[in-house]
Amino acid sequence: MSNDNNSSNVEDVAKKLASSSLSSKAMAFKPTFNAKAPAFVPRPTAATPVAPAAATAAPAAAPKPMTISIGGSSASSAKATPEPKKTEQEPEKAEATASSSEAKKETPVAQPAAATSAAAAAAAPEPVDEVLVAEEEMLLDEHFKEHLNIIFIGHVDAGKSTLGGNILFLTGMVDARTMEKYEREAREAGRESWYLSWALDTNQEERSKGKTVECGRASFESTKRRYTILDAPGHKNFVPSMLSGAGQADVGVLVISARRGEFETGFDRGGQTREHAVLAKTAGVRRLIVAINKMDDPTVEWSRQRYDEIKTKLTPFLKAAGYNPRTDLIFLPISGFTGAGVKDRAGSLCPWYTGPSLLETLDDLQAIDRKINGPVRIPISEKFNDMGTIISGKIESGHIKVNQKTFIMPGKIPCEVGAIYGENDIEEQSAVCGDNVRIRLRGVKDDIIQSGFVLSDTRYPSRCARAFNAQLVILDASNIITAGYKAVLHVHMAVEEVVITKLLHKLNKQGQKSRMPPPFVKKNEACIVRIEAKRSVCVERFKDFMQLGRFTLRDEGKTIAIGKVVKLIDTSAASN
């Protein structure tokens, strides 16, 4: 009897093969990552014959998805869910599936709980941390006025300190009685026209010589923003102090003297107007306000011709330095001594200029994107002992609070924030990215802290390295530069002696690397080099933290090259 059944089954199969068409081509198998595995369909046997309609409709049924996870912790995501055993009632279920195949294309198939949760976890976006959002809103409410750090740069005797002192007086940060005292003392010293600068030049050496030596600091406030003035020295011997100030600045004010002869001296080769503009761009100053000062001088008398002459000469140079003339540069005429064009517009004194004043321009600048909830990064600019260890610096990323646990890098020196002092020595409970603050630390002595160290949080400490690869642009080298060249590295607040140990690639104008290492590089060329320091330096890749990834190389009192960190090499010993 069984032989007859087998023979009849063979005849049925032969008839089906004869009637079916073999001209169609099978679909090529194309594996896809995280694809859904098709549902398992059992091969028809003698015990479970399949009707022709069911057999043709079975491939159209919606497949059961299988989640593929690489490196997942769930065991169910690594293996497909086993198919339940078939029973003798399977033909009836197959017929029902065939009749509703079109509906199943739109209706998802029920999945096991483990597979569903794994698929949902892979497809769903990262959840928003409501605690961080609420904390950021609270900090923004506390620090509702944006804080901008402004650096005054330019050639010596351009009037930077005088302009800064007059701003403090016009905004009420220095009262009239104090300014009268400065004027009386300056008259007695034979320096009557310097009295406004004494609001920023506080030590006796600066007042007697009329030259700023260290980067002065003061603060003022408008109806829209809070500002910190960084008054950079203009003499070429004090460029390192200028670099330390530029590393903390958000906006630059390039002060130009319109007096006949003074502009030409500062802009000609060897003048500090050129070097300061390039160094400010290297330090991260994106916007530059060009304040053409001393327009009230008898040699100028608010001449539009003189203003246009200076603007015409400066614009091509600043464009070559990396500033976009349309979006990054703002020119305006002022008189820092009389205050015309500083707080209020010059008006009838300068009828051909109808634009805003200097303070109006600062208030109208676009807001800067701050990383309030980023990892804490505070390069230390100075430290001292005043009944405890106190450091100062600008918060480049994140925010800090009183009693917060922190690390001082390099070395992972543990400490705790004891107090935070904002502008005008006012004690605060918190400070956010962009603020210039002084911090009292607990659990650490000041003798082990140096300028250039970085205060960071304990979860994401700052990275440190003794060696790194960098992209350089050679600005001014008297000779060719080869492997073994020694220079002084200026990165944020750190100053370190370094050696260029390898020339890895030379870059063409399109940024393409050479296949072979170049034997040397010279002025106006770009290259990739290996730089090594004697001790670990707190640096980051430029794409991670721009302020900790851009630097300047100086030698023999001049800027040799500017660059950015592209790869950290030796980080094992530096982070310990």
Topology readout:
Elements: H1 2-19, H2 52-57, H3 90-99, H4 101-106, H5 113-123, H6 130-142, E1 146-153, H7 160-170, H8 176-188, H9 204-209, E2 216-221, E3 225-231, H10 239-246, E4 251-257, H11 262-267, H12 272-282, E5 287-293, H13 304-320, E6 329-333, H14 358-363, E7 377-379, E8 382-385, E9 389-394, E10 399-401, E11 405-409, E12 413-421, E13 427-428, E14 430-432, E15 436-442, E16 454-457, E17 464-474, E18 485-491, E19 494-507, E20 526-538, E21 550-555, E22 558-568
Parallel strand pairs: 1-3, 1-4, 4-5, 5-6
Antiparallel strand pairs: 2-3, 7-16, 8-9, 9-15, 10-14, 11-12, 11-16, 12-13, 12-15, 17-20, 17-22, 18-19, 18-21, 19-20, 21-22
Fold and architecture overview:
The protein is α+β, with helices and mostly antiparallel strands. It is built from 14 helices and 22 strands. The protein has helices at residues 2-19, 52-57, 90-99, 101-106, 113-123, 130-142, 160-170, 176-188, 204-209, 239-246, 262-267, 272-282, 304-320, 358-363, and strands at 146-153, 216-221, 225-231, 251-257, 287-293, 329-333, 377-379, 382-385, 389-394, 399-401, 405-409, 413-421, 427-428, 430-432, 436-442, 454-457, 464-474, 485-491, 494-507, 526-538, 550-555, 558-568. The strands form 4 sheets. Strands 7, 8, 9, 11, 12, 13, 15 and 16 form an 8-stranded antiparallel beta sheet that branches. A hairpin with a 2-residue loop joins strand 18 and strand 19 (494-507).
